[in-house]
Amino acid sequence: MDKILDMISEEMQQAFEQAGYDRELGRVTLSNRPDLCEFQCNGAMAGAKKYKKAPIMIADEVAQKLDRTQVFSEVTAIAPGFLNLKIKPEFITAYLTKMRKEDKFGLDMPEKPEKIIVDYGGPNVAKPLHVGHLRSAIIGESIKRICRFSGHEVIGDIHLGDWGLPMGLIITELKERQPGLIYFDEGFEGEYPKEPPFTISELEEIYPTASGKSKEDAAYKEAAMNATFKLQSGVRGYRALWKHILDVSVEDLKKNYQNLNVEFDLWKGESDVHDLIPGMVRYMKEEGYAKISEGALVVDVKEETDTKEIPPCMILKSDGAALYHTTDLATIMDRMKTYEPDRLIYLTDKRQELYFEQVFRCARKTKLVNDDTKLIHIGFGTMNGKDGKPYKTRQGGVPRLENLIAEINEEMLRKIKENSESKKYEIEEKEAAEISRIVALAAIKYGDLSNQASKDYIFDIDRFTSFEGDTGPYILYTVVRIKSILNKYQEQGKALEDAALQDAAGEPEKALMLEIAKFNAVMQSAAEEAAPHKLCAYIYEIANAFNRFYHETKILSEEDPQKQAGWIALLVLAKEILETCIELLGFSAPERM
Ligand code: ARG
Question: Fewer Cβ close by (within 10 Å): the C or N end of the chain?
Answer without folding.
Answer: N
